[in-house]
Amino acid sequence: PHITFIDFEGTQRTVDANVGDTLMEAATSNDIPGIDADCGGACACATCHVYIDSNWQDEVGAAEDLETEMLEVAEEVKSNSRLSCQVVVTDSMDGLVVTTPESQY
Ligand code: FES
């Protein structure tokens, strides 16, 4: 599925993600800037914070408890915030758009 990452300046980059990878892995393996992922996907750093496009929030779903706790230490958290290492790519996410926060550049 194709996933588009938009950086804080509005630059769009689209990657062809693998089903079963996390959004974080799809980004880091394609050199997408703005996702640091310091903890390597353990839901322990909150530097893989992204904003899910409003049209996609239902498909992507909400954060679970551990992720919600980690989001409390992220900067500029919004109602559409997720940690990208906790979002697993599915076929039905083709066309997904997420934005990366300025604090991660
Ligand atoms: Fe650390 Fe996602 S990579 S919380």
TrEMBL record:
Which superkingdom, per the lineage?
Bacteria
Q: Plastid: is it a keyword of this entry?
A: no
Q: Which InterPro entries did the record assign?
A: 2Fe-2S_ferredoxin-like_sf, 2Fe-2S_ferredoxin-type, Adrenodoxin-like, Adrenodoxin_Fe-S_BS, Beta-grasp_dom_sf
Q: Which GO terms describe its cellular component?
A: cytosol
What Gene Ontology terms describe what this protein does at the molecular function level? 2 iron, 2 sulfur cluster binding; electron transfer activity; metal ion binding
State the PROSITE patterns in the record: 2FE2S_FER_2, ADX
Keywords attached to this Swiss-Prot or TrEMBL record, sorted alphabetically, are: 2Fe-2S, Iron, Iron-sulfur, Metal-binding
Gene3D superfamilies, per this entry? 3.10.20.30
User: Keyword Translocase, does the record have it?
Assistant: no
Tell me the protein's name: (2Fe-2S) ferredoxin
Q: Which organism is it from?
A: Arenicella chitinivorans
Taxonomy of origin reads: Bacteria, Pseudomonadati, Pseudomonadota, Gammaproteobacteria, Arenicellales
